[in-house]
């Protein structure tokens, strides 16, 4: 915990948009938690405060909001530039009736012990629904310490989920997010550099060029690596095509360069569709912005537009964007409760598309 903490009741709406987190599986219990007494500096308050959560992927299924985040935990693994200290081992699912309402923790829905091929580091997940089945997509490291992406299937948005015995064929790296297009096609976007290992691949082939986080990245004056897209198979369990790299261009149609740290892709790709345009938002990682780029189709090329969310407290920035009853929201995280990079807490705030289609930049701090 940071220095400026005091005990206050958890069940207190400090901001119209944010509900304070409540303990697991209950909807009306007041608990005592430690929170910062500098709450007023934040745009929103933590949604969950009895454990740590991050990388929230939010969806509306059957009129209810479901959130699929990472479950951050303390561990003995020392911090490094490859994110070894993000040593998460399971997932919980949460739901909310509205973004300003109470949040329910539906408990653990999948653990590393339930996934035959996964050894550690269950990082940012996502979920999708198709024909009454629910699919939880997640990255994890295998026994060779290589990230792959797995899928677990359930009959309900809150699980239980049963993992497929093998990772998705041809999958690699981290941060899967699965987008359902208006025509009923589903696409997975994935990838993340440094600890996310994307820089170790070219044309979907592993080419290890060294252990440092930047080994394998293009030179600063070369095009940056983009996130990867693949259409999903009808059964949602495999890729239906060879994954392709997405291009992100600047306002002149030139590729964003690897040295352009404030605009280049790092991790946390998310797609939403607004006014028939595809909005790719992503974290610029070591410069901590959530940036966005627009395209006319799911594959791009995407043209860089600006910043959705300015840097939050903590090293990582990772979000999702969801429409709820005609209004748009961003789910994101920061480290308000712990002050520690790897112990994060999820939040929500309104997101506004302006008349010209641009997104009004959100400041996570007041
Ligand atoms: O939570 C672990 C990793 O941190 C995620 O996969 C990244 O997007 C970053 O948020």
TrEMBL record:
Superkingdom of origin: Bacteria
Q: Does the keyword Nucleotide-binding feature in the UniProt annotation?
A: no
Determine if Disulfide bond is one of this entry's keywords.
no
Molecular-function GO terms, alphabetical? hydrolase activity, hydrolyzing O-glycosyl compounds
**Which CDD domains does the entry link to?**
GH43_CoXyl43_like
Q: Which UniProt keywords apply?
A: Carbohydrate metabolism, Glycosidase, Hydrolase, Polysaccharide degradation, Xylan degradation
Q: Where is this site: Important for catalytic activity, responsible for pKa modulation of the active site Glu and correct orientation of both the proton donor and substrate?
A: 175
GO BP of this protein: xylan catabolic process
**Belongs to which family?**
Belongs to the glycosyl hydrolase 43 family.
What is the protein's name according to its record?
Answer: Glycosyl hydrolase family 43
């Amino acid at each position: 915990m940071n220095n400026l903490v005091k005990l206050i009741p958890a069940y207190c709406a400090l901001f119209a948009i944010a509900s304070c987190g409540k303990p697991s599986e209950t909807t009306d219990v007041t608990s005592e938690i430690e929170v910062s007494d500098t709450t007023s500096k934040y745009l929103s308050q933590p949604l969950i405060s009895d454990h740590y959560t991050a990388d929230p992927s939010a969806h509306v299924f059957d009129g209810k909001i479901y959130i699929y985040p990472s479950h951050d935990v303390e561990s003995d693994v020392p911090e490094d530039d490859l994110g070894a200290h993000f040593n998460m081992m399971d997932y919980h699912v949460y739901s909310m009736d509205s973004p300003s309402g109470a949040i329910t923790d539906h408990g653990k829905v999948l653990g590393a012990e339930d996934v035959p091929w996964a050894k550690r580091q269950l990082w940012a997940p996502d979920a999708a629904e198709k024909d009454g089945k629910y699919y939880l997509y997640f990255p994890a490291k295998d026994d060779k310490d290589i990230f792959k992406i797995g899928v677990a299937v359930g009959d309900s948005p809150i699980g239980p989920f049963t993992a497929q015995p093998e990772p998705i064929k041809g999958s690699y790296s981290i941060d899967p997010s699965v987008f359902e297009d208006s025509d009923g096609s589903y696409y997975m976007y994935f990838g993340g550099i440094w600890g996310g290992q994307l820089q170790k691949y070219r044309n979907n082939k592993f080419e290890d060029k060294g252990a440092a986080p930047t080994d394998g990245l293009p030179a600063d004056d070369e095009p940056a690596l983009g996130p990867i897209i693949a259409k999903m198979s009808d059964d949602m369990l495999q890729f239906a095509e060879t994954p392709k790299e997405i291009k992100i261009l600047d306002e002149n149609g030139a590729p964003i360069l690897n040295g352009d740290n404030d605009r280049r892709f790092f991790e946390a790709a998310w797609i939403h569709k607004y006014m028939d345009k595809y909005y790719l938002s992503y974290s610029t990682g070591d410069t901590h912005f959530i940036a966005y780029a627009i395209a006319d189709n799911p594959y791009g090329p995407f043209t860089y537009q600006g910043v959705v969310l300015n840097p939050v407290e903590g090293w990582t920035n990772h979000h999702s964007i969801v429409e709820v009853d005609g209004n748009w929201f961003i789910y994101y995280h920061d480290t308000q409760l712990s002050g520690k990079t790897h112990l994060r807490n999820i939040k929500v705030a309104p997101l506004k598309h302006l008349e010209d289609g641009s997104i009004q930049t959100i400041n996570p701090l007041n």
